[in-house]
Design goal:
Elements (H helix, E strand, L loop, with lengths): L3 E4 L3 E3 L7 H4 L7 E7 L2 E10 L2 E10 L3 E7 L3 E9 L2 E5 L3 E5 L3 E7 L2 E7 L4 E9 L1 H4 L7 H11 L4 E2 L5 E2 L2 H11 L5 H25 L10 H16 L7 H8 L3 H12 L3 H19 L4 H7 L5 H12 L3 H15 L1
Antiparallel strand pairs: 1-2, 1-6, 3-4, 4-5, 5-12, 6-11, 7-10, 7-12, 8-9, 8-11, 10-13, 10-14
Helix pairs in contact: 4-5, 6-7, 6-8, 9-11, 9-12
């Protein structure tokens, strides 16, 4: 996709394939990068290529509040997943709305023309995966709403696969992680990214089709800001025993608003979110270090490794020992 980005205050942001040193640390290996750094902040767009599929990973940071316009004259069937912060947008075709962290949307636009409202000093990131009609046609008999969506695509009419708000689940986020962490090169890389992108599409269609119209995602900007603050506090104390009351006091929200906000953005309450983060951090430690299960259990807030192992198996459907054995086997294979 040939994307133009224009700031209301600073004009067009000219992206360069030569990245400034400050953006090199954000670069995904083997991605095609376009970036810009200036007094305004920075913008980085990274392109990953699958078989007949393009993936764009966007990172934005502005020092001052800004209205940013995304524009392209190319038609696009795209799956969009917000990975960080809330995107308050105004689209030429779909009007005003919001996608929070983990929010996802499958849509078609005859041309890209969306305005984003960005707050100062905050990092924003999202993933856009661009598909062809051939990727969706084989799936239309399995998803009733897809037929009418593709009918709009065929005549160049903008459309949403679903007008309801949908939150990406753990399976979708895991595939996104695998896409962004892909270490393969050459043709194998394109095959692998293409496979993951099709899997992501299928999981998204299942998730969107299963979602029921509700108030999910409806939350004020100020409350959303406090929910993200609460999220950061949770991440800083994964091994501790922070109470809902303490977290509510630190964010200025009631316990009800705190839980409602987490469910509106993440689809789960604070306790479930904390458990999810602990399990993911533990999995990373088990797969990347030689530390004992007992030590990782304590860091995850468990006083007994047996309780931790049971919780880990319930979450991932395999044990901590399995992860350790897999890591050791991979290490021997690479020697």
């Amino acid at each position: 996709m040939n994307i133009r980005i224009e700031a209301a205050q600073g004009g067009e942001i000219h992206l360069s394939p030569v990245l400034p040193a400050s953006l090199q640390q954000l670069r995904i290996p083997d991605s095609i990068c376009y970036g810009a750094v200036g007094p305004f902040g920075h913008v980085l767009v990274q392109q990953l290529e699958g078989e007949d599929i393009s993936i764009l990973y966007h990172t934005l940071y502005f020092n001052q509040g800004e209205q940013v316009m995304y524009m392209s004259e190319e038609a696009a069937i795209r799956l969009q997943i917000v990975l960080r912060n809330s995107y308050y947008y105004d689209s030429r075709y779909f009007g005003a709305g919001a996608l929070h962290e983990r929010g996802l949307s499958l849509n078609f636009v005859p041309a890209v023309h969306s305005k984003l409202k960005l707050h100062p000093g905050e990092v924003y990131s999202h993933l856009s995966v661009y598909y062809g009609i051939k990727h969706l046609l084989p799936l239309q008999n399995s998803f009733p709403g897809l037929m009418s969506f593709l009918a709009k695509v065929s005549v160049g009419q903008p459309g949403l696969f679903s007008s309801g708000y949908t939150i990406a689940d753990a399976g979708i986020l895991s595939v996104v992680d695998n896409i962004l962490d892909c270490n393969y090169q050459g043709h194998l890389r394109k095959l692998y990214l293409g496979h993951l992108s099709v899997e992501l599409l299928l999981l998204a269609l299942i998730r969107i089709s299963a979602s029921h119209p509700s108030a999910s995602g409806i939350i004020t900007e100020e409350d959303a800001k406090q929910i993200y603050r609460a999220k950061e506090l949770v991440l800083l104390d994964l091994g501790g025993n922070m109470s809902l009351g303490s977290l509510a006091d630190q964010t200025g929200l009631s316990v009800y608003k705190l839980n409602h906000g987490f469910k509106a953005i993440y689809g789960i309450g604070v306790t479930e979110f904390l458990h999810e983060c602990r399990m993911k951090k533990a999995h990373q430690a088990l797969s990347e270090t030689d530390r004992s299960v007992e030590a990782i259990a304590r860091e995850s807030g468990y006083s007994h490794s047996e309780s931790f192992s049971l919780a880990f198996k319930k979450y991932f459907n395999y044990t901590p020992a399995f992860v350790q054995r897999s890591r050791r086997s991979q290490g021997l294979a690479n020697e």
